[in-house]
Amino acid sequence: MAAMRSPTVKRRRIAQELRRLREKTGMTKGQAAKALDMSPGNLGRIENREITARPVVVRAALALYGVTGDAAEALIELARGATERGWWHNYSDVMPDWFGFYVGLEEDATQISTYQAEVVPGLFQTKDYARAIFGLTSDGTDTDQKVAARLQRQEILHRENPVSISAVLNEAVLLRPLGSAMAFRTQLEHLAELTALPNVSIQVLPFGAGGHPAMTGPYSLLQFPDSMDEPVVYLENFTQGHVLEEPEHFTVYQDAHDRLRKLALSEQESLGRIRELASSIG
């Protein structure tokens, strides 16, 4: 079992395992809930990750499903970790629950593939660029906290065993200035600097590429170190984010990302385009 940092991923694994083990025994939710002295609704919320199962509940469920010994103790230890608070909980007053869930997944990801059509990805944003974004997309309150949370997310790029990220940016991202001219130039220069990291790939999708597979909108694909943790697709709009966990969804988006990379400029050509645009800003 690969080491997990994030309580979100631990909670996801526990929910997945409890559901899998119950179904393996042939028990319905109602039957299992009655044996565990809880309502079927509560068991359902545990299996759907809506609430975190306390270790004592996990121990009782595993005993009911016939799981004992080291296998049980490993899952109970995960359950203990799932009750912890990730760093993002310190920003819960400015970070919606649905985005906090995504950040918790992002924290444990080993590979992120993303396409952005309008803005620089949050993991690549400078402080001033992020501030300009929040000035346009939020009510203007608690901006310092929102920016701080965004910058803290970026630590996954520089930690030991950093996340690998493949980002395809629509050329519009590089041509749409945000904030002051110098702040935008600094953002483009920062993008160029990030390409020097061995775990970061940035490609520019030029307007000349014409139509492409991601014309329906931006996305992020997250993969995890343990094969038991299924990869996810993350989609976001103004008011909420959606995590798609079905394998067929991930396959479709992964295929689209692969095709998008072939249409985009190479990494070296993209670096040249980024530097060219940065140098054109006075």
UniProtKB/TrEMBL annotation:
<dbReference type="InterPro" id="IPR010982">
    <property type="entry name" value="Lambda_DNA-bd_dom_sf"/>
</dbReference>
<protein>
    <submittedName>
        <fullName>Transcriptional regulator</fullName>
    </submittedName>
</protein>
<dbReference type="Pfam" id="PF19054">
    <property type="entry name" value="DUF5753"/>
</dbReference>
<dbReference type="InterPro" id="IPR001387">
    <property type="entry name" value="Cro/C1-type_HTH"/>
</dbReference>
<dbReference type="Pfam" id="PF13560">
    <property type="entry name" value="HTH_31"/>
</dbReference>
<dbReference type="InterPro" id="IPR043917">
    <property type="entry name" value="DUF5753"/>
</dbReference>
<dbReference type="GO" id="GO:0003677">
    <property type="term" value="F:DNA binding"/>
</dbReference>
<feature type="domain" description="HTH cro/C1-type">
    <location>
        <begin position="18"/>
        <end position="72"/>
    </location>
</feature>
